[in-house]
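Dear Dr. V.,

Thank you for agreeing to look over these. As mentioned in my earlier message, I'm a first-year student in the group and I'm still getting used to reading structure tokens, so any feedback on how I've presented them would be very welcome. I ran two proteins. I've put each sequence directly above its structure. The first is here:
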Amino acid sequence: MSFFKNYFYGKSGQRDFTEQDLPTNRMQLFREVLKVRRSSMVGLNFLYLLCWIPAILWSYLNLVQLSAIAAGISDANLGDLIYSYLLVLFPLSAITGPFTMGISRVLRNWARDEHAYAAGDYFAGVKENWRQGLLYGLINGALPLLVCICWNFYTGMAGGSPLFYLPLAIALIAGLLWILSAQLMPTLIVTYRLRFTGVVRNAVLMTLAALPKAIAVKIATLAIPVVLLLLMQFAPAALRWAVPAALVLYAIFWLSFNRLITASYANACCEKYLNPKIEGAGVDIGLRRTEHGEESKK
């Protein structure tokens, strides 16, 4: 039992940082948190993975069908397959929204070296934020389907007039901005008492204010898919072992690892742009203070 307990509650004997040995910057804080919490992140990853199983199974079935089309075994239309896949994926992705609030609550605390129980705080985050979490999941689930519809519609209409590429570009930019802003929304939802419109507005404004960092964080969380795409292009034979290895890594650890990256980034943005405007809210939480009592620089 103690073996499994380590993965949900972490290892015993891990002391908290004192004022003297706190990290001086966020990269150090991230490394120290990862070193202390990596075992409990495995259990948290398992909890979060459960809500994604329906979407994973649906994606696998469609991947098999896609392989059959590519091999000439099936004469199904590729466009119809993509549309039906995204249509069903929409609700399957939507139901993960409340559980994203649960993992975000835990990792928000861990990312700033505060206490949180992997299981207890996870389910508390789901219970307290499920309404906004479901709305967040609905929009995330609908986004690929809407982009697909806009792409088919405007590219079809562009044959009559190139002006139709303009609304298509606007739709794609709006979708990209949502994807980047969505990295901040779960932390905003579990941390502040805001209407969902306020969550979206603040997330978009902070994303635009820190756009290069937002793009870098998104690229970091897509590291494994990017590697797989590169292997597909330059070393397809390596995919025989790379794809199973990537799936195992996601199943064991990588979901919570990616969420820790986004939680660290979201904490930094909130403490830089929002907390100074809120009386009593902390900034640079988990970082060492200077000799003059001021918070260390980000």
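The second protein is here, in the same arrangement:
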Amino acid sequence: MNRRALDIARRELGSTESPAGSNRTKYGKWLGLDGQPWCMSFVQWCFNQAGAPLPCRTGSCSALLRWYRANQPERVVPDPMPGDIVIYRFGHTGIVESASGSDVTAIEGNTSPGQGGSQDNGGGVFRRTRKRSLAEAYIRPMEEERMTGKEIYDALCQYLSSQPVPAWARAELEEAAAMGITDGENPMQLIPRYQAAIMAKRAASN
């Protein structure tokens, strides 16, 4: 996920137009669309501030979605993750913070703090929870962050743990466990060289 863009969006919570009702913000000014509806300007600004500018520079929700569908369709995903861009069916957007069940929570620009005001021209940056049925699509921009060594290791372990032991290896794995070479637990887990050396030593002793 793009944590930097999401963190930046969180820091903007409570920001409002000046003067009220003018659609004038630093986000629109940065994109060259000051005085225009600015929910997409806010999203674009956050990703740019995070060092991951979006490949389609636009203030239009539908234009951004069309670009990704035409050029990077693999980035248009069915299920949201933190840092994704949500495109709503009512011409609005935000940066996904979390998703649970039938709801998605996003940090959105140019919306209202509650249901009482305009949802797509409300004048401020607020955290909003909406039904996922209101979302037309989620966009997962190219990740610009480098993973740490631990993150790479954890991702590999998570992937491998979801994979089955190859059929050809199962009998010998059971035999190795019976001989005490391995305990047979977590058979797809990565092991460091010292563990491999100890297993080899046990095998040589039997």
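From my reading of the second output: The mean pLDDT is 92. The longest helix spans residues 149-161. Does that match how you would interpret it?

Kind regards,
E.
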